[in-house]
Amino acid sequence: xxxxxxxxxxxxxxxxxxxxxxxxxxxxxxxxxxxxxxxxxxxxxxxxxxxxxxxxxxxxxxxxxxxxxxxxxxxxxxxxxxxxxxxxxxxxxxxxxxxxxxxxxxxxxxxxxxxxxxxxxxxxxxxxxxxxxxxxxxxxxxxxxxxxxxxxxxxxxxxxxxxxxxxxxxxxxxxxxxxxxxxxxxxxxxxxxxxxxxxxxxxxxxxxxxxxxxxxxxxxxxxxxxxxxxxxxxxxxxxxxxxxxxxxxxxxxxxxxxxxxxxxxxxxxxxxxxxxxxxxxxxxxxxxxxxxxxxxxxxxxxxxxxxxxxxxxxxxxxxxxxxxxxxxxxxxxxxxxxxxxxxxxxxxxxxxxxxxxxxxx
Amino acid sequence: xxxxxxxxxxxxxxxxxxxxxxxxxxxxxxxxxxxxxxxxxxxxxxxxxxxxxxxxxxxxxxxxxxxxxxxxxxxxxxxxxxxxxxxxxxxxxxxxxxxxxxxxxxxxxxxxxxxxxxxxxxxxxxxxxxxxxxxxxxxxxxxxxxxxxxxxxxxxxxxxxxxxxxxxxxxxxxxxxxxxxxxxxxxxxxxxxxxxxxxxxxxxxxxxxxxxxxxxxxxxxxxxxxxxxxxxxxxxxxxxxxxxxxxxxxxxxxxxxxxxxxxxxxxxxxxxxxxxxxxxxxxxxxxxxxxxxxxxxxxxxxxxxxxxxxxxxxxxxxxxxxxxxxxxxxxxxxxxxxxxxxxxxxxxxxxxxxxxxxxxx
Amino acid sequence: xxxxxxxxxxxxxxxxxxxxxxxxxxxxxxxxxxxxxxxxxxxxxxxxxxxxxxxxxxxxxxxxxxxxxxxxxxxxxxxxxxxxxxxxxxxxxxxxxxxxxxxxxxxxxxxxxxxxxxxxxxxxxxxxxxxxxxxxxxxxxxxxxxxxxxxxxxxxxxxxxxxxxxxxxxxxxxxxxxxxxxxxxxxxxxxxxxxxxxxxxxxxxxxxxxxxxxxxxxxxxxxxxxxxxxxxxxxxxxxxxxxxxxxxxxxxxxxxxxxxxxxxxxxxxxxxxxxxxxxxxxxxxxxxxxxxxxxxxxxxxxxxxxxxxxxxxxxxxxxxxxxxxxxxxxxxxxxxxxxxxxxxxxxxxxxxxxxxxxxxx
Amino acid sequence: xxxxxxxxxxxxxxxxxxxxxxxxxxxxxxxxxxxxxxxxxxxxxxxxxxxxxxxxxxxxxxxxxxxxxxxxxxxxxxxxxxxxxxxxxxxxxxxxxxxxxxxxxxxxxxxxxxxxxxxxxxxxxxxxxxxxxxxxxxxxxxxxxxxxxxxxxxxxxxxxxxxxxxxxxxxxxxxxxxxxxxxxxxxxxxxxxxxxxxxxxxxxxxxxxxxxxxxxxxxxxxxxxxxxxxxxxxxxxxxxxxxxxxxxxxxxxxxxxxxxxxxxxxxxxxxxxxxxxxxxxxxxxxxxxxxxxxxxxxxxxxxxxxxxxxxxxxxxxxxxxxxxxxxxxxxxxxxxxxxxxxxxxxxxxxxxxxxxxxxxx
Lengths: 361, 361, 361, 361
Prior knowledge:
4 copies of one chain form a homotetramer.
Chain A: E1 4-5, E2 10-15, E3 21-27, H1 37-47, E4 65-68, E5 70-71, E6 74-75, E7 80-85, H2 107-113, H3 131-147, E8 151-159, E9 162-163, H4 174-180, H5 193-205, E10 212-219, H6 233-241, E11 247-252, H7 263-266, E12 270-273, E13 276-279, E14 287-288, E15 291-292, E16 297-303, E17 313-317, E18 322-326, H8 337-358
Antiparallel strand pairs in A: 1-2, 2-3, 3-7, 4-7, 5-6, 8-9, 8-10, 10-16, 11-16, 12-13, 14-15, 17-18
């Protein structure tokens, strides 16, 4: 029904790419906890464009103005509202009337749903720019989780055919988590960077784009988070991750590989280690029956290639009713996966802060 | 927070495997529409166990008793409640105190979350048996959708290494949809049946189990269904699909394959065909920006192998605090994928009926 | 959208007066707490008809069957579902097609809303009988509250022109609370009983009915329950109290009398008493800014007279389009206020259990 | 859980009296409808302080800046966000640490709930100033309703002992509705103005404040709006009306007077008039069974006196634990009822726009 998420900590995201501003209201945050605002800005900067060649050369200040909910650096308990003004917009790159929907964008479906009234400039409310308020919300929620011993980090698992290593599912180093969660080109195996950047650069030189996957890990979660059936941890995370533009797949633990396994291989045996119950393997990704089991929660999201490419594409002219072609103008990322890493982390942080509050933890 | 789903058509699923009964309340159904109850029972029968060798030999009558919301065969507008009594339960197969959690089951996480008070017999509220009320709800919603020209069908896309054909993403035959949506071992390519059954049989003979994937298609959806961001069609479907026990992955359209594609390949070009806007390919699975585009909506869900296997497994004894082993008794499906097909269809039906009502269609 | 209530503890009420059964699903109850089922039945009996001359002579067994969520007397954490079978129904008292809507009943509005498909027998889903599942839910929630030191009791504040005493707003005796919460004709001043019964009897002898008010007090609530603005304690209670058929007014503390007061009179001064902050008066009814202040929470609900009276009334014939008259047959309470007392208590219990869980208390 | 309201049209109100700004996000508005922004500002001006002697002499610009959801004067379908900057704040009037809670304010309860972290300046999130965004949201929703033939107007029904006439419940003149809905001191009987203003002036001269009631009518509603039980029209309106600071009572139709009536008097007889079903009287306030019956929907809300008065009051010092006295400084309305009139209308507009969308109308 809406751009809202959450039961216990609720976020409501607003804004359009070329309107007055974008932002988020976060309702249900715990009064009295302090927020490190510099750490919030660090997360915003990871998502912001223009940091390297894989990203669009646009410059957005993306500086959030907090209107309410924070007094000094302390949460007041009132809804936290942050606004990011839209400043660097070049609307001339876009027409105002939708003639030709860009393939793989929301242009056509939004045109139908909103009867042609939606703001098409820059994708309007469907712009990837709307992930900035999500990163803001996630940066706040992440700090709440950190204080409870929970760490969240993601990395570029693959771009095109180039791959990073995967998280070790049963033991993830705290230093690795910290390094990734501050990186702007997050990789577990930093020797993979050259091959991955090469995939993006080849796409860029071809006037094309390329997709990829992001893998995210959450460590330090207690067992017992999540609800049965439709509010299980997988479903709660899925609802917000699929809210990130371009995500078309999501898997937990061994995910799709489990479909080809035998139970004797897939089942994670329980063991005591240092008096705690752990599992020897972690094919389930830290979630059993929708509820966390205390092992690292691990998932991977698949991103389709950026729809905007420099090549001519076939489309229709909705005003004339004729088939035609289109060349998308404007400045676009050849690959959004590096910038999607902090967005995935943020979405996970919002989902888990909501679930943990719901579980009374 | 709960075993509830939906904004406009809401379902609340209740029951435990070995309690008095299980069922569902469906709130928000349109008064005055007629329901073909035999067609509902047909769907229930597709999910029921004991129909062939891939399933457990248990017999559950699974006959739903409607307590309210239906007068004759007409929806009254009041909440529709259906109850299925639990009759054929052999509690002796299970202990009453949780000593040793079964690997890959919810035993351990439910024990932690519910402080040992949950009913562990048969998995309690986490039992796959709780998908019976979901199939009931889906069978009702499916009929509402059918009257609006929407068809839903799924098939066994793979079990272990054996595969069925995939749906043609741009044109799915109505007869195929009808055939699949009534089948109890649903395959597009019926010549694949022997290989697929052989995978299951091999697992069964090994005292093991095997996973698989289910592919689901929805045809006849108008463009414009779904909301931006977190209530997009992908997120809405994901929330309910991940509510099905054993699902660990979900992808729409080309899904994870998109992560390796270039935009020039992945983007679905728009064309006019018979005066309608269509796409030449359907890598996006019929959803752009969270909103349906009028093409078939296609997704695949990955199911892990049935956790209950006859082989000895390593686990812990929560009462003694020692590592131990466990051999799961009771009767279990070596593969739940064939029976999961109608469950996936039902979940899709509930999600889409809810979204369509929300979209005012 | 529905017959559901609650954010943290959710109830979904189903059933129709003359259908198969009625009941409730309660989602979000805390696992491991014990329920005294006899105490639940005591509450159900207080609402049941046929206990004295103020009530209809119908006999309903109203015996709830628990289908899930309770193992022995312990909550399992799964949704708690209770069903009450409909047995003693005399449908012949009612036609099946709505010709002439009964004045002040939901007949006409339900006919319009549900396009004539609603079950009109006995009022269908709008029957006062649907308060039985609400009393069940309230009886469970009340026990959770009791364990946290919270007590709920209501009484017949007035019927027609006859009045009971009001609660002392600043100090309510625990024995009085206990006595009222078990009474089937609950009065603070038992000497008022004769006058109040006389009002009902006069209405009955006249083939008429009479309205009244119920006053409810909640003691032992900690300060800090409730949320700002739309989820304040008043709003949360109002939403469920107005869900009780026949309620047309609700006031907290001094309520409508506050409208004629000066601030210097209305403001409740703070004082320390035994180291606790209290107020000298309690015109605000224990709620400031939507949040409890630790004083007794007090509200009054106004009930209109039972719409069904033996006298001839003017109405329309919806089938012929003509004005006509109607004499309502069947057995009806001349005054539902005595039986509404446990319903009001139950509604308050559900609302406060939900709010307390949301406040993490 | 929060400062949010609505199922189909959702509002999320944010801000604190002396923070950066206040505002609202409205989600679910219909794309393509035009908004008369001047008419929105007219409603905002009715609520703004400083217009006459009954109000505080503070000047707030209260000019809303729309950040998203509106392109030109057309709704885009994206969440509509409006922000009002806080400019004219004199924080020196208030201390920063809560020593002595003001009687009848939320100071004490917010202090407990938010552990002393809430922004107490001007009441923070509990300030009456937060009704400005609600008026904004209502002004937008009102226009949607107007286009569907629905009109909303309220008036000062009483202040202290002085009273205006009441709405004729069965026939309300359209010109009266229009006049009231633009008035800044709304009265049906304008000859009552002198007596009503005199009540306020007497309170002001006494350094005191006075309460009152607001009566609201909604005309042109079709029959069939509202849901059974907890989402009935009364409950939906109650939840938002009790979200307005200082409201302590609410009644529909004859309200509390119904409690003293006989059924033969209270029941509204149905009649055909010009081929439409109407009722001869309207004691039910246009709502039967929670569903509108097509007659005017009428309710009255009771407002307590403004808590801030110039007289010395008894309170406690939370830092020293001693009883003490307090004289509230700052500028305050001796009566907020005149300014509450547009707030009540706005709340009704939001509730009914939400209900109508939910009813598919």
